[in-house]
Amino acid sequence: MARLDFPKDFVWGTATASYQIEGAAKEGGRGPSIWDTFSHTPGKVVGGDTGDVACDSYHRYEEDIALLKKLGVKAYRFSIAWPRIYPQGTGELNQEGLDYYSRVVDALIAAGIEPCATLYHWDLPQALQDQGGWANRSTIDAFVRYAETVFQAFDGKIKQWITFNETWCVSFLSNTLGIHAPGLKDLQLGVTVAHHCLVAHGLTVQKFRALGIKGEIGTTHNLGWCEPYTNSPEDVEAARRSRAWGNEWFMDPTFKGTYPQFLVEWFKTKGAEVPIQPGDMETIAQKIDFIGINFYTGNYGRYKKNEGLFDCEDVQVGFDRTFMDWNVYPEALYKTLKWVHEEYGDTPIYITENGACYDDTLTEDNRIHDELRTAYFRKHFIQCHRLIESGVPLKGYFAWSLLDNFEWAEGYRKRFGIVYTDYETLARHPKDSYYFIQKVIAESGLDA
Ligand code: FCB
């Protein structure tokens, strides 16, 4: 059995997001977000579930932090809900919102855990959506103002900042595919929203530097891997388009200040164009201190005329699949991060999310024997180790998620936690995967 040791300074952590765990949707002066509107719209979320209560972490954060401490993590990634800080998106500041996150941050620091904050994990104030949301350029200014407020409030306490979580989801999944809030279906809208979020990211990094905030700032893109099914030029091109939609479309502007031209042309044939204003691309490509990557899955793609946006169909080749129907393809994590390093250079990389959904059962003594999730983590840790060995600057790993939570359009049925949430009592029960990760952290490695 080979022993895989991780560097002593490797950052182990777990991740969550405000709307998925906090609940208390109407407390503490919080304004409504697009996810309140969306989840309360019949037919949008499985089972009609909403984040009104979620895991009630707004009230139970101390319990959550105790779980983190026992787990032994060095860092905790959470998100700040913009509508708790500016209930209307702009205008009046809600001090109670800042106070809530101060309590969380202070409790994390007291527990010896580094807070890592995401500024935008999808809960856009509804008041801004009413004016066009991210398709309206003035949302960018509102975002930078909000970012400035939290930077100043937590300067010196939060030392790792992520501007956006998964700009692909914010833009295309939400505004082109209509699956996430605000649930719109328009290619041009997706392209525009993506661009505005990228500009907002760049301006926020500039603001961070101008204010002299201590710590590091980066962004998180959700990358995947689409392998061509055969070597035929049609398959290769189809898989390339499909992959570039999630990868290069976001990574190229972030690092190179350009969009992948072949996809720009492809979108043009579908009537969509990027609304670039002078200076935008330079703004986007601010130097960042790290890149966050959320990785879950990969697939094989084959050319098929009129299949999806890219004439590319997903081919099943026999991977095990999770309860989300996502392929378990750990090698794709290796391929993706290798590619990131080769294509975009030596910027430190953090896996800001990785994990798996399975249909857990609670035993009578409140245990969850989640062998499949544990195996998923193990396989991906092995790939992380391989990446580090091969010289990829992978600095940390945040498991998604600390606890089962509101899985967006899938509601509560889809569990990703390493801690089980009993939605009747809101009790938390660590799963076997939690104890597995606890051991890996304690030993700074694992037997492969
Ligand atoms: C990612 C999201 C995260 C969670 C996982 C399963 O796309 O960032 O909030 O829902 O998927």
UniProtKB/TrEMBL annotation:
Output the Gene Ontology terms for molecular function: beta-glucosidase activity
Q: Which InterPro entries match?
A: GH (IPR017853), GH_1_N_CS (IPR033132), Glyco_hydro_1 (IPR001360), Glyco_hydro_1_AS (IPR018120), Glyco_hydro_1_beta-glucosidase (IPR017736)
- Could you list this entry's UniProt keywords, alphabetically sorted: Carbohydrate metabolism, Cellulose degradation, Glycosidase, Hydrolase, Polysaccharide degradation
Q: Is Hydrolase tagged as a keyword?
A: yes
Listed GO biological process terms: cellulose catabolic process
What chemistry does it catalyse, as a reaction equation? Hydrolysis of terminal, non-reducing beta-D-glucosyl residues with release of beta-D-glucose
Task: Please list the residues that bind substrate.
Answer: Q20, H121, N165, Y296, W400, E407, W408
Q: Name one Pfam family in it.
A: Glyco_hydro_1
Q: Which PANTHER family match?
A: GLYCOSYL HYDROLASE, LP05116P
Q: What name appears for this protein in its UniProt entry?
A: Beta-glucosidase
Which organism encodes this protein?
A: Cohnella candidum
